[in-house]
Amino acid sequence: MSPPTKKENIFLFVPNLIGYTRIILALTSLYYMPYHPRICALLYSISCLLDALDGAAARRLNQSTRFGTVLDMVTDRCTTTCLLVFLASAFPRWSIVFQGLISLDYSSHYIHMYATLAMGGNRSHKEVDEAWPWALRVYYEDRNVLFTVCLFNELFFIALYLLSFSSDSDVSVENWSSAWSAGAMEMARANKIGSFWPRVLFAISSPVMLYKQVVNVMQLVQASRWIAQGDIEARRKERRSS
Fold first, then answer.
1. Phi, then psi, of 54 in degrees rounded to 5
2. Class of domain 10-241
3. How many CA atoms lie within 13 A of 93 on its CB side?
4. Interatomic CA distance for residues 92 and 223, integer angstroms
5. How big is the CA angle at 44 (ends 70 and 207), to the nearest 5 degrees?
């Protein structure tokens, strides 16, 4: 008689525990977001950096799971969205841009994940075809590129967040520290910060953030074509069988 096999608890896998920690840090950063930019930026940044650690742990410990993949993606989407919502309120003249970024981020990742599940069988959503654009392939196939792009994309929005609390009067285009920015809130005045390093982060991360948005558009288009091709093949089979 063979000994009973030990039942694994997927929810307690190390990568998923790291994922839960990311959620706690993100939620805590949201609590401090309106009034304490330094604490918020620190906690939010640590949560983002742990995004690389959970993947490394999953590969090292052989604990890669579909639940962990979904947990990681949902955490990424939600944390970024929360920050963009704050930025939309901090810079209302640019709110339509932030709303567009949220919509593009969600739609491109959702349709890519759906296409992978519907058309790709058991393949990972990070496995892309050779026929797909180079910019999209290198993003998913090279872990270093994936981590760097995601990191600088978040740094871009963190820099904007810090700029909204800047004490400078000429922080950037159209006086982002004016009366309609988050830095003008009465309870935040004591926490105003200098704009030098946020402006440096903003300048450095801008090109990478733009590349990330290009990748999102490519991902949306390619996944849509993939699903449409599946529809064409399904309809062709239906006509043959009828």
1. -65, -35
2. mainly alpha
3. 9
4. 32
5. 85
- Residue 100 vs residues 84, 85, 94: alpha-carbon distances, Å: 10, 11, 10
Burial 46-55, CB ≥16 within 10 A → b, else e = ebbebbbebb
- pLDDT tens track for 49-93: 999 899 899 999 999 998 998 999 999 999 999 999 999 999 999
Q: How many CB atoms lie within 10 A of CB 7?
A: 5
Longest Cα pair distance anywhere in the chain, in angstroms?
A: 78
Question: Alpha-carbon distance 146 to 216, whole Å?
Answer: 13
Any catalytic annotation for residue 129?
no
- End-to-end CA gap in the chain: 52
Q: Which amino acid is at 38?
A: R
CB-count burial class (<10 Å; 0-12, 13-18, 19+) for 207: exposed
Q: Which of 51, 54, 72, 76 is catalytic?
A: 76
- Write out the two tokens for 190: 């004591």
Which residues of the chain fall below pLDDT 70?
1-5, 121-122, 167-191
CA dist 206 and 31 (Å) reads: 27
* Residue 166: strand pairing partners: 193
Contact between residue 47 and residue 83 where contact means Cβ atoms under 8 Å apart: no
Residues 171 and 186: their CA atoms lie apart, in Å, by 19
Q: What percent of the chain has pLDDT over 90?
A: 63
